[in-house]
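Re: that backbone. Tokens:
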């Protein structure tokens, strides 16, 4: 087996035991067995669970060269318990031995004369060994001084390789674990292992990206003591370091399969960001990468929340800072004078929302300044009520449906919501002025998203479709299936360039229907970027994004911030809604892989396996040139 090509090693599953503990209690039996001693005990793992099937032997003490006599034997049950009765008249010292596959035998002498109820704790030591050789992947030359560490529920054991690149980790116990291998200037490798017997596992290391990060503040002064945390979506590995006095830090062991690193910067003065909102691109063929980040000095936001009609302070108002509920930067509440103060905020433009149980919310966009305090006043009014009823597509009321605000003034920060009663009715109080979009969800139904409900009407009626039917507002069910011909695309890209599929007849095309406001779509971007990078040398492959966004600037900014290189269709010029209708797109993200000639050969390819799936289809699909019955849109 070429272990350097595998990310896991599968062998027969071991018992759940990791760290064995045996508790023994010898008690004098009563009744007919009053003169017999019963030894009770339990074998436990490190988590307190019983070890099933451990063998227990109780023998006499060997003396004068005589072979010890077996007094009792047995096995632990599913809870790790056992109970063994010694022969009548047993006295003096006995030897208790316990062992299980993959563990070193435990043995201890117990003197029955010293205590009628002795208690013995035995710790199982692992008997398995993991050995192998660490080499350079390209030349098979040994790497001396590499670190090989095995992590499992029993702890961490590590060693370093000798001059021949060999390592040996012993004393391991059965079960799941992970081998981590690292060496200076090489990418770190992590390999999952299922261990029940001693194994040999060779690992080849590839050169790592040499990534240096420079952090300065808003005055261009070096920022020391900044923790730089980075993650690669492609390899699921994390890297970190702390900047020195010059504001520099090296991230070691960055894997060559990484397309880019997502980064966040942490200091004691700043609120910890929830997102890794900075990126380090890792170009092919470029071993050394230097990235400079500006971390402005933290800002302070202070202010007051008052009642709109008379400026009376409102205590217990909830203050949130962030563009939507899922991406809050910070949250607080007002004191008895309606005041609040939040420190450690990023010095940037932020969305501030004030909400109160008895008033309609207020929202303001505020530009925060480095090392400064910005004052803001938020005014809450009574608002209005939105009422309505939720039904299914046969007209029956839907009870326990959740109706919640999902957009106001371009952001999703509102907490307004209501649940329908048995008649499908709902009321949402204290709705602010302006258009508020709502999402309706219920078990067994597809969600109704981004629905505008105006206050003042007595009754809004919303219809949910049972799961499996088309999403409201989307294309009808059906569309183009695998094996069918896709319509021709005739549109302009976001950059104004004409895109005509007739001129792309010799290419495989991955159509990606998405939007920046769609969280699952955003989560697919790293996988698409990885695929674009892996297939960059293929002149017969192209990704085309079909954006269903309504905000062109938001799309342009997202494409720029995330360094998306493939063409994007948008709006009327991009004929995106016509494309979605023609292909029968019912929800996003949605992908269609077209073979040369326009035949759909796969749908809904996504996730970490996207690159491998594309490579498989591209290598196994013969070119098809027929364009018969292929309409345009």
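Recovered sequence:
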């Amino acid at each position: 087996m070429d272990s350097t090509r595998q990310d896991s090693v599968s062998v027969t599953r071991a018992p759940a035991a990791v760290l064995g503990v045996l508790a023994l209690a010898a008690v004098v039996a009563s009744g007919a067995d009053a003169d017999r001693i019963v030894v009770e005990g339990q074998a436990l793992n490190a988590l307190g669970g019983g070890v099933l099937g451990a063998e227990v032997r109780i023998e006499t003490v060997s003396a004068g060269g005589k072979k010890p006599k077996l007094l009792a034997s047995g096995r632990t049950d599913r809870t790790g318990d056992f109970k063994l009765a010694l022969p009548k008249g047993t006295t003096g010292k006995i030897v208790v031995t316990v062992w299980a596959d993959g563990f070193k035998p435990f043995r201890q002498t117990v003197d029955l004369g010293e205590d009628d109820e002795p208690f013995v704790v035995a710790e199982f030591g692992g008997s398995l060994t993991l050995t192998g050789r660490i080499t350079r992947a390209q030349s098979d030359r040994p790497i001396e001084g590499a670190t090989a560490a095995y992590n499992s529920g029993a702890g961490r054991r590590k060693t370093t390789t000798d001059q021949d690149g060999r390592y040996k980790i012993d004393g391991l116990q059965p079960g799941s674990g992970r081998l981590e291998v690292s060496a200076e200037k090489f990418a770190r490798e992590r390999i999952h292992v299922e261990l029940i017997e001693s194994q040999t596992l060779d690992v080849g290391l590839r050169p790592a990206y040499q990534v240096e990060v420079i952090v300065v503040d808003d005055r261009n002064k070096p920022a020391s003591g900044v923790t730089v945390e980075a993650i690669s979506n492609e390899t699921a590995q994390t890297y970190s370091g702390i900047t020195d006095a010059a504001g520099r830090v090296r991230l070691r062991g960055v894997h060559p399969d990484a397309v880019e690193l997502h980064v966040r910067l942490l200091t004691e003065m700043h609120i910890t960001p929830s997102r890794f909102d900075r990126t380090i691109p890792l170009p092919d063929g470029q071993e050394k990468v230097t990235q400079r980040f500006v971390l402005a000095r933290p800002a302070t936001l202070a202010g007051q929340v008052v009642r709109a009609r008379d400026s009376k302070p409102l205590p217990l108002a909830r203050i949130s800072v962030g563009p939507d509920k899922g991406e809050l930067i910070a949250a607080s509440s007002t004191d008895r004078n309606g005041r609040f103060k939040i420190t450690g905020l990023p010095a940037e433009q932020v969305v501030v929302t004030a909400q109160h149980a008895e008033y309609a919310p207020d929202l303001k966009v505020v530009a925060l300044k480095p090392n400064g305090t910005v004052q803001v006043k938020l005014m809450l009014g009574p608002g209005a009520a939105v009422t309505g009823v939720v039904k299914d597509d046969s007209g029956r009321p839907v009870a326990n449906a959740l109706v919640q605000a999902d957009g106001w003034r371009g952001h999703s920060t509102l907490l307004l919501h209501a649940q329908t009663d048995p008649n499908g009715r709902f009321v949402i109080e204290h709705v602010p002025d302006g258009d508020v979009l709502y999402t309706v969800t219920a078990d067994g139904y597809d969600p109704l998203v981004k629905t505008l409900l105006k206050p003042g009407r007595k009754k809004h009626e919303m219809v949910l479709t049972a799961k499996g039917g088309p999403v409201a507002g989307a294309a009808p069910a059906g569309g183009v299936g695998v094996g069918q011909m896709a319509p021709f695309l005739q549109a302009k890209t976001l950059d104004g360039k004409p895109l005509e599929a007739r001129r792309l007849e010799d290419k495989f095309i991955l159509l990606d229907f998405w939007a920046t406001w769609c969280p699952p779509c955003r989560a697919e971007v790293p996988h698409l970027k990885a695929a674009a990078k892996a297939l960059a040398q293929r002149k017969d492959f192209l990704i085309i994004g079909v954006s269903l966004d309504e905000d062109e600037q938001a799309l342009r900014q997202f494409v720029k911030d995330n360094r998306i290189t493939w063409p994007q269709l948008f709006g009327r010029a991009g004929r995106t809604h016509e494309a979605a209708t023609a292909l029968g797109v019912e929800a996003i993200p949605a992908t269609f892989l077209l073979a040369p000639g326009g035949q759909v050969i796969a749908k809904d390819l996504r996730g970490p396996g996207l690159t491998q799936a594309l490579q498989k289809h591209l290598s196994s699909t013969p070119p098809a040139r027929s364009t018969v019955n292929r309409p345009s849109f």
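The chain has five helices and 47 strands. The two ends are 52 Å apart (CA to CA).
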